[in-house]
Every structure is written in structure tokens, then in C-alpha cells.
Amino acid sequence: MTKKQTKSLVAAIESQPTAEQLKERIIRHLHASLGTDVNKASAQAWWRATCAAVNEVVYDGLRTTQRAHYEQDTRAVHYFSLEYLMGRLFSNNLHNLGLYAQAKQALSELGHDIAELEDQEEDMALGNGGLGRLAACFIDSLATMNLPAIGYGIHYEHGLFQQAFQNGRQIERPDSWREYGNPWEICRPESVQEISVYGYVETVYDLQGQMKKVWHPGRIIKGVPWDIPVVGYQGSSVNVLRLWESRASDFFNWDVFNSGGYVDASRENIEAETISKVLYPNDDTDAGKELRLIQQYFFCSCSLKDIIRRYKRSHGDDWSQFPAQVVIQLNDTHPAVAIPELMRILVDRADMQWDEAWAICQQVFAYTNHTLLPEALESWSVRLFEKVLPRHLEIIYEINRRFLLEQVDVLWPGDNDKKRKLSIIEEGHNPMVRMGHLSVVGSFRVNGVAEVHSKLVQSDLFPEMVALWPDKFTNVTNGVTPRRWLKACNPRLSSMLDRLVGTTWPTNLKELAKLADFADDARVQDDFMAIKQQNKADLAKVIKELTGIAVDPSAIFDIQIKRLHEYKRQHLNLLHILALYRRILQNPDYDMVPRVFIFGAKAAPGYKLAKEIIYAINKVGEKINHDKRVKDRIKVVFMPNYRVTLAEKMIPAADVSEQISTAGKEASGTGNMKLALNGAITVGTLDGANIEIAEEVGDDNISIFGLTVDEVKALRAEGYDSHDYYHQNPEIKAVLDWLETDYFTPGKPGELASIKHSLLEGGDPYLVLADFESYQAAQQKIDGWYRDQAGWAKKAIMNTACVGKFTSDRSIQDYVDRVWQLKPCQVK
Ligand code: GL4
């Protein structure tokens, strides 16, 4: 073949397929990849064949992107995260490739509804909540913005558990998202890594009399990488999410086999493979388990070795360019063990001097803090650390020794209190390694995820670290990808936006501001409300299917979707529902706009009170939904198994967005952004990114309530007693007492009492009762606003128009400017 012929052949392969060509490809894959035939293929087979057809385009992009990055030897960001909450990839990939319409047509001509095929895909739920979904939005933005990036994480066999309700109680079932394989992932056996754990450290001296530490590992584990292509929107880049699966090392097991015997060898197998078996289902709490530490180390070590292998391909043993080429973003402290691991590789393996190695580390790592909750701040017992990673513990001790000596003691000479507070090792009868401290010390930049949160990180969490390194700290407010959270999930609103503000908003979300010009336009208002109505009708069908509850799409759809946690205060929402219900019972003509209160939330399996709250909402809902006296003014719906795919159906249908955490507790929130973007009006506290949303949309278009961060602090300082609120507010007293009766759980009084107890004897740690009245007023305001449909439409429109700031593209640009110093790489 001539060069010209090759070129045109490549061009033909790489060009966008038409619907007709897609049809051919789908059938070809049905035959050649799936070994089935058009007249007997299942929906699953059609879906897989379509994925394979789409992958022909995806892989083109992947190859060209990787070639460009390699040839241009670009600096790249490496996002280290234990969680990626990807959801489904089918429609997302089609939208980002600009192939959705063609695929829809192709499938329809083949006799298939694209929406039905979409339902063949399991959610990729390799995360708990906001932190994992943020990682997924970020890698979408990175690819869209043509930034050289790779996401590293764990290829869990089981993602976040699936939730069902049994008589109102949450039960968990394992999630087997890839039981029959996953069409998007590519196994890369050529890039397998081996990592070590356990064992002991020996001190030896070389011929020059130099002391060296030699780690004799107790176990070797193999990491097998699976690559998920990450398709940028309209951009030419296809980046990679590389997820590691653990396997027993063949080498090591033969050793055990030879010396120990068959039974031990097979036990090794199971233990090695356990590492990537399952995602820990805690959001905002530290599991503190040995397996979790091994998970963290496993993926960090595999990823670092992978990065170094790639670096050496272009730079050999010259480490001087490493910090120029590599930046590693630590998604919370979960991957902080990467810091001592890189030190170990440089000092023990590459024979580098400590100072030189440490200088490299401090230029490579950056750390994002995602929570201030004390129970979420990771710390590992020194004893456990020593057992699992004995050499790393020594390295952490040395990092700490130098830090205390060269930094802390220089700024605060002889101040032992400061040393105790700042030490990476927390002393006590059970000494602990503080991963937050380690992350700050080992990183060149530390950021929080919303303005208020970043301020609190500096003032409350690490004030002394700020004194040591004022320039290290910054803010990057979170964002969400408008491709998934508007374009793909809300096609009706998207086409209206295309018409009104042009078609570039998916990559330039500030364009939505043009919509504000139409906020008073009656036609636009009607269209906007009609779209919301249709989305609500769609959701009503889903609600009926999943819960059997019939809801009226003309009622207010009031939605609270997020993990279940006391600080997020789903029980505040519940108390308000109870108060409304009680008013209706006391006054049959009670005037309120009918409302459907819709919840979606998983509780960590070990979090008892969270599970009690789910149970209470379900029981209260059962009662209210069947009570004729309510005359459908209130419905309560708890959607089972809340996940990305369900969020995509709920968010476009929301009128009201519940963002009601105790001020100072929700680092940012991202559901708040998705809901506002889709025209929901927020009922919220001045917490996390709510504050910035309020700034953007203006006071007329959001219903703010509750104590501020400063007021919360002041109230706590003066001594908060929730009993005062219980005794002073008869409505609070009545609804709390109600929970103790058997009214909602006939024949079983006391079943819902734990909520009352946590709010009274338990001291109400999240100030639910303190905020109750003001919450009620904020809800009353919503009720009033909704009665004026034109006024409501205007507010809803203004929400969509004003939240352009919260695209994850802006967050990523902030990271580029404030942290990564990265340049886009044009691929074609
Ligand atoms: C979280 C925060 O709780 C949440 O507010 C934030 O939006 C998210 C992403 O930054 O991170 N931190 C943890 S832990 N889980 C979260 O969802």
C-alpha cells in the first residue's frame, strides 16, 4: 500500500460512521463478536454488539490520543482515587462522540428502542457518593479539555451494594456489575505489576559501609490493569481510567507451593484476590480495616510503578525531569500512602539521597481534602501499619522526624504542644498514623472543595500547617459535567437550550447566562414548565414501577438525593413532613400546594441510626400515602437503590432541591449543582457550595434557612440544649412524641423512637431542632412561590441560567491554574 492509500484508509476508519454504517457494524459484531444472529439475539446481545460497534470509534480515539501524548512527551496529571462512580457509559459515550442520533436511528431501523438497550447496562458503581462521582465528572472534563490525564483506581469485583427494602428496612445485596464481562474495559496483561506487603525490614551495610534498608516482603501480589476509555466531548481525546485487579502472584505461589504445600498455596490465592473484591461502603467514615489499608497501598503502588515505567521509556534513569512530567492528585487521604511508597522507590530502589527524593515527592503530590468530619479523618494504628507495610512506617517516621525538626521546631522552637499537634504520629497508648498530616506535609498544594470548606480546612483543621506554608493552601470549588447532567439526562431541556442560547453550552456552560434574557418571556416560561411537567410524568412512571406509589405530576416534586447521614439531615425533612401531616389532620382544609417528597439514599450497612431513618421515612410514607384524609396533599416516596442511573431520571424532574446539611458539615455537595442546573429551586442552608449557588442565582431564586457556620459555632460554645426547642415548640414536641407511639408501626410502639432519642438524649449533634423552625419557614416560602406559576418558572429558569460556574470544566481549569500547571495536548 502506498502512503497515500494508508492515509485514506486510516481516515475512513477514523471518520464518524453514519447510521447506515453503524447498522452494518452492529450486525457484524452480532455475528463475529457475539456468535449470534439477528433473529435470535437477546436485548443483551444487541446492546453488546452496539457497544462493540461504538468501541471501533472509541479505540481510534484512544490510539491517537496515546500516540500524541507519547510523541509529545507531555506532562500529565495522574488522578489517584479509591472511587469512581461512573454509572453507565453507553449513552454518555454516544453523546460525547456525537453519535447518539445515528445510533438511535440505526437501532430503530434494526427494530430496537435505544432506551431499552440502555437498560441492559449495569451501573459501574465503584464509589460511594459525591467523592466518587466527582472523580468521574473530572475525568470526563479532563478528556473533553484535551488534558493529558490518567485516572488510577481499583477494579472492584463488587461495587457499592444494591439496596432493597424489606418491610421498609434497607437490605443489602452484592453488586456484580461485571458478572458477564463489561464491554467497555480492556485487559492489559502487558502492563501487569507486582507489589509486596507484610514481612520485615533488615538493616544491611554495603561494601562502602553505607547503611541500607532491605524489605523482605511476606507476600507478593499481582496487579492486573483494566483500562476504561474515557471519551471527551466532541474533543479528539480519549483518556484512560486504569483500574487494578489483584491476583495471586504466580511466582510467589509456586514458592509457597514448593515449600509449604497445596493448602497454603490456595489460601494465598484467595487472600490476594480479596484485595479488589469489594468497595468499602462507607462514605465519610474511616473503616480502619487491614484490608482497606492493603487496598490503598495496592493501587498506589501499582499506579506509581506504572507511571515510572512510562517515564523511564522516555527518560531512562534520569529522574531530574520526573516532577516536570508527573503530577499526582490525591483524592482525599485514601491514596496518601503513595507518598512513602514513592520515597521507598526512590531511596531504596533507585539509591537516591533522602533530600533529593523528598524534593521530588514534594513537587509531585497535591492533596484534595473532601471532608472535615472527624470520623472520616483517616488514621491507621502504628501496629497495623508496621505489620502490613513495615518499611513504609520507617519512612513515615523519618519524614516526621525531619518535619518536626526542620519545620515545626524552627517556627516554634521548643514548643512541644505544637509538635504533638502537628506530628504525623499521634501519640497515646495506641499510636496512630495521621493520613491528613502526611498528605499536607508531602504535598505542594492542598485544596478544599468549596470556598467555605477551604476556609475551614485552613482555620479549623490545619491552622498550624497554614502558618508553616501559607501558599500551600487553596480552593477549588467542585463542579459537575454538563454532558451527563444536562445534555444526556435532560434531552428536552437541552434542545430548548440549543434553540435559545446556541449549542456550545455543553463545553462553555457560562453561555447559559443568555437564558436570563428570556426569564420574563411568557412563551419561554411555558415551554420550560411544560418540559419540567413531561420530565415529572416520566419520573412518575418510574416511581410507580419501582414503588407502586401513584403520584400526580402536577404536585411539587421535592427531592432529597444523597447518602444517608445525620449531618445531611434527612430526618429534618421527615420532621417537616410529619408536621404538615399533623396540620392536615388537625385542619382538614389545611391549604398547601400538593407535594411529593422523594428520597433516594443508601445507608452504610453498619450505620444503625441511618438505617432507622430510612425505616422511619418508609413507615411514615406508608401511613400518609394511604390516609384518605390527606387527599393526596402529601406523598412520600423512597426510591430503592439510588444510584447514578436513577439520579439521571430524578434530577430533570425536580422542582425543589433539598440541601439541608448542618452548616459547616457538607464540604461542597454536587447534587445541589445538578439539580439547580436542571431548574430545581434549592431549599438549603449556607453550607458548602450552596453558598456559592446562592451568590450566583440571587436571593430571589433560592430559599435559604438555618444557622450559619459562625452561628453554629456560637450556639455550641454557649451550650446547645435541644430540650429547649422540644419544650418551647409544641409542633416539635408533638411530632417527636408521635414517633414513639405505634401510630406508624401498628402494634410496635417505639420502633421509630431512636430518632427522637438521638435528638434529645443524644444531644442532637447536628442541630436539627435548632434549624427546624427556619426550615419550616423556607418550605412555606416555596409553597407560596409555587402558587404563582409564572413567578416559579422565572425562578427555575434563573437557576439554569446562573449556575454556569459549576461545570467541572471550570473546576478542572482551576486545578490546571492553581495546582497542575498543565497544557492541553491537541490530538488530531
Ligand atoms: C465528600 C463530601 O461529603 C461532599 O460534600 C463533596 O461534594 C464530595 C466531593 O468533594 O466529597 N467527601 C466525602 S468523604 N464524601 C463526599 O461525598
Protein described:
The relative contact order is 0.10. The chain folds into three domains: 1-72 and 93-122, no CATH class; 73-88 and 123-476, Glycogen Phosphorylase B (Rossmann fold); 486-505 and 521-705 and 767-810, Glycogen Phosphorylase B (Rossmann fold, 3-Layer(aba) Sandwich). The chain is 50% helix and 15% strand. By secondary structure, it is α/β, with parallel strands linked by helices. The two termini are 23 Å apart. It is globular and about 95 Å long. The protein is built from 34 helices and 25 strands. The longest helix has 30 residues, at 43-72. Strands 1, 4, 7, 8, 11, 12, 13, 14, 18 and 19 form a ten-stranded mixed beta sheet that branches. The chain has a six-stranded parallel beta sheet with strand order 22-21-20-23-24-25, with helices on both faces. Strands 15-17-16 form a three-stranded antiparallel beta sheet. Ligand GL4 binds next to α7.
Low-pLDDT regions: 8-13
Strand content: 5-15%
Structural class: alpha/beta
| Main pleated sheet | 10 strands, mixed
Number of domains: 3
Average pLDDT, rounded to a whole number, is 96
Named at the architecture level, the CATH assignment of the largest domain is: 3-Layer(aba) Sandwich
Radius of gyration: 28 Å
By CATH, the superfamily of the largest domain comes out as Glycogen Phosphorylase B
The helix content is 40-55%
Present as ligands are: ligand GL4
> How does the overall form come out from the CA principal axes?
globular
In the CATH hierarchy, the third-tier topology of the largest domain is known as: Rossmann fold
End-to-end separation? 23 Å
Which CATH class of the largest domain is shown?
Alpha Beta
Strand tally is: 25
Number of helices: 34
Oligomeric state: single chain
Keywords: Carbohydrate metabolism, Glycosyltransferase, Pyridoxal phosphate, Transferase
Enzyme class: transferase
GO molecular function: 1,4-alpha-oligoglucan phosphorylase activity
Protein name: Alpha-1,4 glucan phosphorylase
